[in-house]
Amino acid sequence: MRHVGLIGLLMGGTVLLAGCEQPDTDVSRALDSVNVIDESNLNDIMLTVADPNEAVDYFLRTSRENPDRIDVQRGLAKSLIRAKRNEEAALAWEKVADHPEASNDDRVDYADSLIRTGKWDKAEDVLDTIPPTYETYSRYRLEAMIADSNQEWEKADAFYEIATGLTTRPAGVLNNWGFSKLTRGDYGDAERLFTEAITYDRELFTAKNNLVLARTAQANYTMPVVPMTKTEQAQLLHTAALAAIKQGETDIGRTLLQDAIDAHPQHFAPAVRALRALDTERT
User: Exposed site from 71, 204, 244, 251, fewest CB < 10 Å?
Assistant: First the structure.
């Protein structure tokens, strides 16, 4: 009987031990889940608000610890782009694109990184590997830029138009399209596209400056009716003045330079130097 009791106690102990192991397993799983959530949040922070070079260091460390994880490789490539380390970013994106789990998005980002390093032909080859049924704003924006670089104007216009329709924030692509028109000498279309870009992004100064260039190319030296600060107004007047001088309209250029100096809330050294140079030539 004592043997039976001992066996019973041992079996009971086994059951108790088995019962004790389950909470430990649950806790371990819960902690793993928390760690994944925390890491995901940290990755997001590193890709958005962290200092770009600190983010690069973080993803380099993490990629050494997890060499096969494509999300970490993506994070490194994106952080290198943010840090404007474009040559390194292109190599990082190439590694992502070669990963077995790579997506079409990854290949588009790889093509984008190649364009940033001036490798237009290779970028075009990468985009050609993506099925035509894969239609996104990022893909068509790059297709338009490549068509532009090849001076395939009809293709460029078609791609720009598609890209514009695939985003709710088309200011950047409209500005690029307008600049394409500007380089072709289609100044009226360029002016329209720059104006449209500004309606989507009132703070896009590049589009404002390009708009002035499109207008001055048509001998229109008045300021466009678009939102601008006093500093921006002075800079745009300066742009118009230089364009006028380049086109032989020296008197108009002199007046615009003086207007730029008067409009600027502080000392506008470039306009002052340009005006002095004109006055020196006159004497």
Answer: 251
Residues 115-149 as b or e (16 or more Cβ within 10 Å = b): bbeeebebbbebbeebeeeeebbbbbbbbbbbbbb
SS3 state of residue 103: coil
Closest CA to 199 of 177, 170, 223: 170
Residue 189 and residue 262 in one domain: no
| 248, 218 contact by CB (below 8 A) | no
How many Cα atoms within 13 Å fall on the side-chain side of residue 276?
6
pLDDT in tens, the chain (283 residues): 444 443 333 334 333 333 444 445 554 444 444 444 355 677 888 888 678 899 999 999 999 998 999 999 999 999 999 999 999 999 999 999 999 999 999 999 999 999 999 999 999 999 999 999 999 999 999 999 999 999 999 999 999 999 999 999 999 999 999 999 999 999 999 999 999 999 999 999 999 999 999 999 999 999 999 999 999 999 999 999 999 999 999 999 999 999 999 999 998 999 999 989 888 876 5
Instruction: Give the domain extent around 268.
Output: 229-282
Residues 204 and 165 in one domain: yes
Give the integer Cα–Cα distance in Å for 175 and 185. 15
Residue 71 falls inside a structural domain: no
Question: Ramachandran region of residue 151, left (φ > 0), alpha (ψ -120 to 50) or beta?
Answer: left
